[in-house]
Design goal:
Layout (H helix, E strand, L loop, with lengths): L4 H4 L3 H25 L5 H22 L11 H24 L2 H8 L2 H13 L5 H18 L8 H23 L5 H17 L13 H25 L2 H4 L5 H14 L5 H18 L17
Helix pairs in contact: 2-10, 2-12, 3-4, 3-9, 3-10, 4-5, 4-8, 4-9, 5-12, 6-7, 6-8, 6-13, 7-13
């Protein structure tokens, strides 16, 4: 069946399936990180995730280079995106090792609550009343997950919120350069820069993987590239407002995986908080232009 150019970029069902597939891939990656965290340090897992992703990504970029090649005029923005994205990865993998899987994933979805704030401070983008209300609703959801009556000031809570803020910084840096930088180039530079930078902490964390851990690390890198590709492809096939909500499938998949492998369950307050965060994220991400044309997205930090 032949499609016109417009039809190829307006296929919401196919786009939603790609985004949902990316959500499953991310949940599987997180589960593997949790398994490895029992025997490997956070620094080692982050490094090998980036190294293996680079190994898988290089042949793709060399075979099908982005429009205009890989040369960039926005190296500083790529470096800022790398610093924030890599920081978010360290926080996120630490959360996975020390929290229930679904709760750790939930904290990364606080990013849409911080994106309007970061965009206002950095890009001077106005924040509409609708977005302000969404942010308030989202932070009520965060409080429910943190359980205000106990442990609200536990260190893990701040690590989780830090992960959300860093993801937001990475997203806004992508928005800042998206007019001239194609998604493949953005993903390539993130992986290229994050690999040597994440090698530095190995100077004080020299624990090497053993046995099956090598296979799991390679699989994490593969899933990271596949997840990025599927997410970017999904957002290129349909309007963001139509396929974006399917990215929250990661929470459902993570909950199921956590229950199957670690006997994890979420209480009622956490479910209510998750619902509020998801709704707030969807409202905050919605824009009139999203209904008119699709947009690429390459900002997931996995």
């Amino acid at each position: 069946m032949n499609y016109t150019a417009n039809e190829l970029r307006d296929r919401p069902v196919t786009g939603a399936l790609f985004v949902l597939g990316s959500s499953l891939t991310i949940a599987m990656l997180c589960a593997l990180v949790k398994m490895l965290s029992a025997s490997l340090s956070n620094e080692m897992i982050v490094f090998f995730r980036n190294l293996c992703a680079l190994v898988f990504l290089l042949p793709w970029v060399l075979h099908r280079p982005p429009s205009g090649g890989i040369k960039t005029e926005h190296f500083r923005l790529h470096l800022a995106r790398c610093a924030s994205g890599l920081g978010a990865m360290y926080c996120f993998f630490y959360l996975i090792a020390n929290m229930q899987l679904a709760e750790a994933v939930l904290f990364t979805f606080t990013a849409p609550l911080f994106i309007p704030i970061v965009a206002y401070l950095w890009l001077k983008e106005p924040v509409s009343p609708r977005v302000r209300n969404a942010i308030i609703i989202g932070f009520i959801g965060v409080l429910l997950i943190l359980k205000p009556d106990r442990e609200i000031f536990r260190p893990l809570a701040f690590v989780g919120l830090g992960a959300g803020i860093l993801v937001a910084l990475a997203m806004v840096s992508i928005r800042r350069m998206s007019a001239s930088e194609p998604p493949v180039r953005i993903v390539f530079y993130f992986t290229l820069l994050s690999t040597p930078i994440s090698a530095v902490p190995l100077l004080w964390s020299r624990q090497l993987p053993q046995g099956d851990a090598w296979c799991l690390l390679v699989l994490i890198g593969f899933l990271a590239v596949v997840g990025q590709f599927m997410l970017t492809k999904g957002y290129s096939l349909a309007a963001a407002a139509r396929v974006g909500p399917f990215s929250y499938g990661s929470i459902i998949f993570s909950t199921l995986i956590g229950w199957l492998f670690w006997d994890e369950t979420l209480d009622l307050l956490t479910w209510v908080g998750a619902f509020l965060i998801c709704m707030a994220g969807i409202i905050a991400s919605w824009s009139p232009s999203a209904r008119e044309k699709p947009r690429d997205n390459s900002g997931a930090e996995t």
